[in-house]
Amino acid sequence: MKNYLLLHYGFEKPTPEIMEAWGKWFQSIEDKMVDGGHFPGGREISPAGTKELPMAQDSITGYSVVKADNLDDAERIAQACPAITSTRVYEIMRK
User: What CATH number does domain 2-91 carry, 3.90.1150.10, 1.10.760.10, 3.40.50.170, 3.30.70.1060?
Assistant: First the structure.
């Protein structure tokens, strides 16, 4: 099995329904979960300077690292995710 990074996009104020959906999803993948977390905000650093990143529909709000046989299997895991806007899936390659 390989590790895949799921980047979760989008923010809206959490409701009990949203929190319940996330809880159920995390429970459904607990045997595949390697690591995960959320981002309460951040900063973007570029040659133009630094800017605060507000929580919004286009924000990266969290990540999950999951074990899957291939990208298609990782995509199936992500499709069940209660993402606010979207989830992006990347294979994690190590040297």
Answer: 3.30.70.1060
